[in-house]
Amino acid sequence: MHPAIEVVKLKRLFRKKQARRSWRTVVALEEIDLEIQEGELFGVLGPNGAGKTTLIKILATLLLPTSGQAFVDGIDVVKDPRAVRRRINMVSGGEHSGYGILTVRETLWMFSQFYGVPGKVARERINELLRVVGLEEEANTRISRLSTGMRQKMNFARGFVSDPKIVFLDEPTLGLDVGAARDARNFIKSWVKDRPGKTVLLTTHYMTEAEELCDRVAIIDRGKILACDTPENLKRRVKKDSIFHLEVAGLDSWEGLHEIAGVKQLVSTPRDGFTELKFILDHEDVLPQLLGKITERGSRVLYMRKTEPTLEDVFIELVGRSLEVDTAER
Amino acid sequence: MAVSVSRRVREGFGAFRTATRLGWQIESNWADPLVFAIYSIIKPVAASLILVFMYLVITRGKAGTELFAYIYVGNAFYIFVGGVLFGISWAIIDDREHYEMLKYIYLSPIRIYIYLLGRGMARLFISAISVAIALSFGALLLKVPLRITAIDYPYLFAGLILGLGGVIALGIILAGVCLITARHSWGISESVAGAFYLLCGVVFPLDVLPRWAQAIGVVLPPTYWIEAMRRAALGEEVAGVSQVLGRFSNSSLLLVLLGTTAGLMFISHLFFRAAEGRARRRGLIDQRTDY
User: Fold this and answer.
1) What ipTM is given for this predicted complex?
2) Which domains does chain A have, with CATH numbers?
């Protein structure tokens, strides 16, 4: 049996215009290999610009790779895009797209017809999805009158109206309020669990989302897959390390802290009135020396705690910077 | 997951119907139905009147001549060309730039031709009403010799279907152009419709154009289509106005129209496929250009 998704040495380059007649080549994906089995809820975790959306666009037949191969349900996405499209659907988060003149129900109905869903099945499914995303009351409201969050919920429902075999979710909870994001995550989980044979490829830069939802996670950065395993196995990579979370006031510079023997990684995030520091240490014995260096500079430690490893820590160890900082910087 | 032919046909028809409905809602949405209906009547009448006044000024008031009927009927049927070209190609720009839904349409299994055709149907329908209004206006108030009983209906419908096929093929080519261009997409369909207005003998017989323009005009299906529509509506006598087209009998004109339309359809398919490939290579299907 073939994997639900298989990617072999997939590479994608973009040319970006810098100035008149001056182009720069950007590597979006650098010969990545990936295999996702049927029934898996697979996460691709990485900062903005890591190559997550490029990967999804290639798999969804919207973009051609520069080299390499990609198969969806055993079908080559370059050679037979129409056969791939019968099996897939996609949701992109943070979008406010939609035909403003149609109502929510009309939009979902239209897409159900584009996928050839029989009328009765489509009507039942639309009602179910409207309930799941909490848009029952807005079913007959025009898209142009919906808030951004509601449009996103509608877009989310659209992705499932065809009951695809494989669904690509590109940052599906981006821009949703906390409750709606939780509902969306619950729906994704139960959708895969209740329907054997369905596969989800989800990209996110929310660590907790990847940790909560995914059977396996690939950590991607600058077009390369740095690690791919279950969240538990990934966390085991840093389990032997000691992870400390500090909040420090009056810290102007953290230069030199990196050089202390035993400090594997250090990430600093400026907050309102203090600096948040995250250390991954080889062992706890390094801590007194580290705290000494901080207080020597006249800084005050406001808060300190030892934490259990998370995917964030795995990301920091692999990439050398925090996903949160990275995403904010880009 | 092999899909049977009957299922494909059923799904294709369902998708076409849905795309047509969407096109109609988008086209008719900007005003209430009464305003839309008034606009639909005024627009073709106003366009005809502009032409009429230009003709009257140049000929010093000689309406009701054979040449006037030739120009008027050609101009009336040309409404289809602008409408259908614009309707099909605009769907790409509108869906990608305005509604940002083109990528979702694209990754559905619907054939993009069916979708574009459906979206263009609304314009086709509106154009058909406009043509009927313009022709009625000409017959009733401008002495254009159109008599319902004298129209050659089988020829009219055969020509209309072939001609529309050619215009749809042109629309698909323009849709392909819109798919791979950003900066100039907005004006492409209008520019092409304008160029065809000149080159296809809509207002001037082909004979008055320079040789190079005539050479372009004789390979374009709308040239033969407009001529066929004139002959169906006004009778074969009108064939004498243009010597270039006058050498074709009614049936040979229809054959040439069939040949050029088939050729154009083939070219439009190749061109659109190539444009689509380029758009996928360059990541243009979901790109917002914001020009």
Assistant:
1) 0.83
2) 5-235 (3.40.50.300), 240-308 (3.30.70.260)
